[in-house]
Write a structure and sequence with these properties.
The complex is a heterodimer of chains A (279) and B (310).
Chain A lengths: L1 H30 L3 H6 L17 H7 L6 H32 L5 H10 L5 H15 L5 H5 L6 H12 L3 H9 L4 H12 L1 H17 L2 H6 L8 H11 L4 H35 L2
Helix pairs in contact in A: 1-14, 3-14, 4-8, 4-11, 11-14, 13-14
Chain B lengths: L3 H11 L2 H40 L2 E4 L4 E4 L3 H7 L2 H33 L5 H13 L2 H11 L6 H8 L14 H26 L3 H9 L4 H12 L1 H16 L3 H6 L11 H11 L3 H29 L2
Antiparallel strand pairs in B: 1-2
Helix pairs in contact in B: 4-8, 4-11, 4-13, 5-8, 8-11, 11-14, 13-14
Classes of the chains: A mainly alpha (279), B mainly alpha (310).
InterPro entries (chain B): ABC_transporter_permease, MetI-like, MetI-like_sf
Family (chain B): Belongs to the binding-protein-dependent transport system permease family.
Pfam families (chain B): BPD_transp_1 (PF00528)
Chain lengths: 279, 310
């Protein structure tokens, strides 16, 4: 009986695993086979549904060197924006988190409450006014619109503040006695100790920006400046039937993220767990 | 052993009073400099737009025509009788009502399956989580092809089981179910991780005691696991509800609201109004109504879960 139960359990686990990754495997295999082959084996349930008969990199080449849809440019744009946002998010929000965790100043409780109250303000409501703000600043079609409003991470402040709060006061006092300024203490002692939560926040910020769709769709009109997600969505509706190329474009934009995740998943999962703790 | 504090405190007291004050003032200055950048961003990109949204929602605001006039409650009044807005709310609620129970149960089930640290559970956790890191646009694009009637993976599978095949996305009656399946595929792994954290926080001796008392696995689940998970479940249900009612990203790529407006959700409608028809005041008023509905539901849910708390 017990063996039956454990057999059933593993069967269910494997089925869920298959459902979770089959679309991705299918995407990658479809991207690396000729167009005709994709349809030839689509109605059969043999191994070639997933394993290419004639593996090819042609689809990737076509997509990368496409003049109308320069995917390399889109990936470069997105990498540029997401990296800058990540660095600035880490810098700006760790400073605020440190002040909230360790420094004494008047109005701290109120200011912190203001930050936390921002968590319930939905982006949908502020979408139009933020667009108008970009319009008035003259930032439409510029990366400023993608970078500057994204530099604030209330969740990040919340996450890092909890971590900084556990740094012993004695260490800060000792640094103070030694004549170090607060800024120096922060940069030399507190930040180096906070590498794990910084990786968590950095990873979440980077992936969030890599994935962002609606905001770039609204503020960026110039095709050459577009972000990868908008480009893929546009590509998949424009190229309609050219599945191999659509899958190749999707694969190119997914695989780097997948690898990054596999190496750093511990930190990512830590971040989600932290967000669950606050509830 | 003299701890650093005991040496620090007298040292601070030796300093003249005025000096200490100036030091505190120095700390206060530093603190404000540290908070200033993010506080400025908060005011400019969150609070000011929120205030602005409130004002715009009472205006007839058209960016293209450059017109802007105060119309009082007109936007809100016409939204109350606007069929396509009400229909879009209906679609969002349909999505939410299906997704909340099913997705919560599946993610809890997955967490229970891989909770015990035995062979390969780490691998399964990674596999289950992969859909979460796949971007919305890519996931929707791939699923669009999977749903295809002639060549798609899903219909192949249905055929294999001798079930009728359909083109999910071009039939108004089933298109939303296609969105729902994709939505759950992408989100269950995320909530599984949250449930996993909740499960790991339950003290193991409770189960030991229950075993001694002869409680079955099922009794243990309903008498220990579920009650102890109450706060985690509350968090998952509330977040799922908010996310589900605000669903939009998947719809943009998977169906673009079609066929025949069958998958037009509330946020999709807001976007269409504000940025396609350039009715910014009207769209923002719709966003406020949606916000009020979501807030009200969240508050009710919090109250319900709190009543169950021990």
């Amino acid at each position: 009986m017990n063996r039956f139960a454990s057999f059933a359990k593993y069967t269910i686990m494997i089925i869920i695993a298959i459902v979770s990754i089959i679309p991705i495997i299918w995407m990658i295999s479809g991207a690396s086979r000729p167009y005709a082959e994709l349809f030839k084996y689509s109605n059969s349930f043999n191994i070639h549904l997933f394993v290419p008969v004639q593996p090819t990199l042609q689809n990737f080449k076509d997509v990368i060197f496409n003049e109308r849809n320069p995917f390399l440019t889109y990936i470069g744009n997105t990498l540029f924006v997401a990296s800058i946002v990540t660095v600035l998010v880490l810098l700006i929000n760790s400073m605020a988190a440190f002040a909230f965790a360790k420094l004494r100043f008047r109005g701290k409780a109120i200011v912190f409450a203001l930050f936390m109250s921002a968590m319930i303000i939905p982006g949908e409501v502020t979408l139009v006014p933020n667009y108008l703000l970009m319009h008035n600043f003259g930032w439409l079609d510029s990366y400023k619109a993608l970078i500057i409003p994204s530099m604030l991470s209330v969740f990040g402040i919340f996450l890092l503040r909890q971590f900084f709060a556990e740094v012993p006061d004695e260490i800060l006092e000792a640094a103070k006695i030694d004549g170090a300024t607060m800024t120096r203490t922060f940069a030399r002692i507190v930040l180096p100790a906070a590498v794990p939560p910084m990786i968590t926040l950095g990873l979440m910020t980077f992936l969030g920006n890599w994935d962002s769709y609606l905001w770039p769709l609204i503020v960026i009109n110039d095709d050459k400046k577009q972000m990868i997600q908008v480009a893929i969505a546009a590509f998949s509706s424009a190229e309609g039937t050219d599945w191999s190329k659509i899958l190749a474009a999707s694969t190119i934009s997914t695989v780097p993220i997948l690898i990054l995740f596999l190496f750093l998943q511990r930190y990512y999962i830590q971040g989600i767990t932290m967000s669950g703790v606050k509830g | 052993m003299a701890s650093p504090t005991t040496t620090a405190k007298p040292a601070a007291n030796i300093l003249p009073k005025k000096n200490r004050n100036s030091f505190l003032r120095g700390e206060e200055m530093t603190a404000w400099w540290f908070v200033l950048p993010s506080f400025a961003l908060l005011l400019i990109f969150v609070f000011y737009p929120m205030l602005q949204a409130f004002i715009i929602s009472f205006q007839n605001y058209n960016l293209v025509g450059g017109t802007k006039s105060f119309v009082g409650l007109d936007n809100y009044k016409s939204l109350m009788t606007d069929h396509s807005f009400l229909a879009s709310l209906g679609h969002s609620f349909y999505f939410a009502i299906i997704v909340i129970p099913i997705q919560t149960c599946i993610s809890l089930g997955m967490a229970l399956l891989i909770q015990k640290k035995v062979v390969a559970t780490g691998l399964f956790r990674t596999l289950y989580f992969i859909p979460v890191v796949i971007s919305t646009a890519v996931a929707a694009t791939v699923f669009k092809l999977i749903y295809n009637k002639e060549y798609g993976l899903l219909n192949n599978f249905l055929e294999l089981l001798h079930l009728p095949t359909t083109n999910f996305l071009s039939n108004p009656d089933t298109a939303m179910n296609g969105v729902i399946m994709l939505g759950m595929w992408k989100a269950v792994g995320f909530f599984m991780i949250i449930f996993l954290a909740g499960l790991n926080n339950i003290p193991q001796d409770l189960y030991e005691a229950a075993k001694v008392d002869g409680a079955s696995k099922i009794q243990q689940f309903f008498r220990i696991t579920l009650p102890m998970l109450n706060r985690t479940t509350a968090f998952v249900v509330i977040i799922t509800t908010i996310d589900a009612i605000k669903i939009s990203g998947l719809v943009f790529v998977l169906t673009n609201g079609g066929p025949n407006g069958a998958t037009e959700t509330a946020v999709f409608y807001i976007y269409q109004m504000a940025f396609k028809q350039m009715q910014m005041g009207y769209g923002t008023a719709a966003a406020f109504i949606l916000f009020a509905i979501v807030l009200a539901i969240s508050l009710v849910q919090m109250r319900l879960f709190r009543n169950q708390d021990y």
